[in-house]
Amino acid sequence: MMRSGSGWQHCWVVLLLVGYAATASAARSQTLDQALVSAYDANPSLNSQRAATRATDEYVPIALGGYRPQVFGSASIGTQWVEGRYNTGTGNGSVTSHYKTDPSSIGITISQTIYDGLKTANSVRGAESQVKGQRELLRNTEQTVLLDAATAYMNVLQNSALVDLRKQNLAAFQEELRSARERFAVGEITRTDVAQAEASVANAQSTLAEATANLNTAGAVFFQVTRLKASKLAPGRPIDPMLPKSLDAAVAMGLSRHPAILAAQYAVDQGQANVKVSEAALSPTLTLNGEAASQYNYYDDGDPVARGTSAAATLNLSVPIYQGGSEFANIRESKELLSQSRIEVDVNRDQVRANVVQYWGALVAAKDAIESAQASVAANEIALRGVRQEWRVGQRTTLDVLNAQTALFDARASLVTAQRDRVVASYAVLSSVGELSATRLKLKVATYNPKIHYNQVRDAWIGVRTPGGQ
């Protein structure tokens, strides 16, 4: 069960940062919400998925084209030369005639499908299901990007705090080294004690360099996800009020709302429609065709014609008998793909359930780790003070002091890490149940609505310009 209320609020007073909170809370500091807003607006992966969603919207008007007539215009112009030989019948041989004209024509053809075995109707249903599934994939990408942004933000905070701790640790070791050298100068300790202090300083310098490199890496990842440069980050806080009250409730919510599951279910609907589209290849097709044309300056049966006009309307029925067997292979293929999509629903359900349990456990573990780390920090602070006092009167060695200082640093570092894990786990739990979104987080951002573009293009008959909507 999740612990709530004053206990957690009290331990959060420690804040994420040790020695860094004062700087982080300064004016004009970046907040976690600002990072999430920037990621929502500017993350390339999310914007790419939005473009893919808009492209998928076009599958519906493409399918609807099967209900609409097809109109073609034609025109031609050329030169015609005709030579004719005629027997005079008088015994005087034949007569040759030559004709040269410049024939031209214009025409229009209209074709309207009346019945196609419900291929168009099922194509539209399949396209609509694909659009809905793509929207769920977009929502899933939004969750991933927001979780990545929260994680990157907390990683910068964590590494900033660890750099500060490393600096404090180095300063403490340097002070121990100074004291050791002074005591060695008056003969109170041995050269070994000084060497141990020097080794601790050297090790602290090395780990500080490593921590600084980790901070630079975290800053680069933060920019990659949010398109912001990390500067004076304010402490991040968990989002417990938005989470389910229990693990069972979280699992139930994830199985019913997670976009990965919903997208897989829409893929099943699309697969069912695709089977019917494939089966339509075995059905007869009925079309109505109309033609009209005008011809100019041509010959008909040897006689010149200045202009001729023709028109025709036909009702054509095409009944497939055998088409090489490819139609049957397409039907079998679409049925297997439908079976695969049904299996994918179960795969996604299992994955969502596993993720919910994993992140819920990580959240509980992070809370326990914070309590343990706080107790460890308090105990190690008392222990360090005691060891130093005993060292001054000769009851402890320099190595004892150095070990106590290292133990205190490790406890503080564990507390920083646990606090970072606490915040990230809360966002991960909300993502695992399918509810991590700009709307749920109440971010101050213009929410992207994929329905706007869909409504703009669904019934468009003509036009090549992309709509001005989202």
Account of the 3D structure:
- The chain has 470 residues and is an alpha+beta fold.
- The chain has two domains: 6-68 and 118-282 and 325-457, Outer membrane efflux proteins (OEP) (Up-down Bundle); 71-115 and 284-319.
- The protein has twelve helices and six strands.
- It has helices spanning 6-12, 21-24, 32-42, 44-57, 59-64, 119-185, 191-226, 247-257, 259-279, 326-392, 398-432, 450-457, and strands spanning 70-77, 80-87, 94-101, 104-115, 285-300, 303-318.
- It has a four-stranded antiparallel sheet, with no helix packed on it. Strands 2-3 form a two-stranded antiparallel ribbon.
- α8 packs antiparallel against α10 and α10 (326-392) packs antiparallel against α11 (398-432).
- It is elongated and about 150 Å long.
- The model is unreliable at 1-27 (pLDDT under 50).
